[in-house]
Design brief:
Strand 1 (30-32) and strand 2 form a beta hairpin. The chain is 71% helix and 8% strand. It has a three-stranded mixed β-sheet. It starts with a helix and ends with a strand. The chain is mainly alpha-helical. 18% of the residues are buried. The longest helix is centred in the middle third of the chain and has 26 residues, at 44-69. The chain has six helices and three strands, in the order H-E-E-H-H-H-H-H-E.
Length: 154
């Protein structure tokens, strides 16, 4: 009977560790702020990377609008693909762990929307459709900025 105790103890310990890690993945590392947003503490390097990523999305959005207005759909597609899921490969795991699940979902959805813009630009070649899609993607940006902010770790 004593031989059965150790496997059960190990199972419980592993389940607790898995649960804690799963919770950290979902909740991230956030603090409630007086302005109603959630703050995510990041290192200087992570902060720089995040600001570059947001700036790239903003620049891509402007360039996509310009290309769509000029009916340059190959350019729209190229720009949108660069802002899509392929860009997610450079996000470090440590940073990914700090971000709450809701913010991760917004980020992935935004990247997917850029991939859809790229595909539809090639297929449909419709400026109005492209601009509507871009407007939908930018709603994610607005939601994220209204909900979260990044602060440097002390």
């Amino acid at each position: 009977m004593k031989k059965c105790v150790l496997p059960w103890v190990l199972t419980v310990v592993l389940a607790l560790i898995s649960g804690a890690l799963g919770y950290r993945f979902v909740a991230g590392e956030v603090q409630h702020r007086e302005d109603g947003r959630l703050s995510i503490q990041v290192s200087q390097d992570e902060h720089t990377m995040l600001m570059q990523e947001m700036r790239a999305w903003l620049q891509s959005s402007q360039a996509i609008m310009s290309a769509a207005n000029r009916q340059k759909f190959a350019e729209v597609s190229r720009l949108a693909k660069a802002a899509g899921m392929s860009a997610e490969e450079v996000v470090p795991g440590e940073l990914f762990r700090k971000i709450p699940l809701q913010m991760k979902a917004l980020g992935f959805d935004t990247r997917k929307k850029f991939d859809e813009i790229a595909a539809d630009a090639e297929k449909l070649q419709d400026s109005k459709h492209t601009l509507e899609q871009l407007g939908m993607a930018m709603q994610n940006c607005i939601a994220c900025h209204a909900t979260y902010r990044f602060i440097l770790q002390p």
